[in-house]
Amino acid sequence: MNVILAEDDLDIELVARLPLKCAGFTVKVVNNGQHVKDIVTKHL
Question: Which of 1, 5, 7, 38 is the most exposed place for a label (fewest CB within 10 A)?
């Protein structure tokens, strides 16, 4: 399963990404909500 993580703070990104990856998720990290919207719109 894929997860998009929108986070601009690298420390918080690491804290959030690690448990997701350990749980088996594929994590795509972006800097803001607009990037999330662009990715989701592109893949729908």
Answer: 1
pLDDT digits (tens, 9 = 90+) for 8-17: 999 999 999 9
- pTM here? 0.77
> DSSP string of 6-37?
E-S-HHHHHHHHHHHHHTT-EEEEESSHHHHH
Query: For residues 10 and 5, what is the distance between their CA atoms, to the nearest angstrom?
Result: 12
The residues spanned by each domain of the chain are 2-43
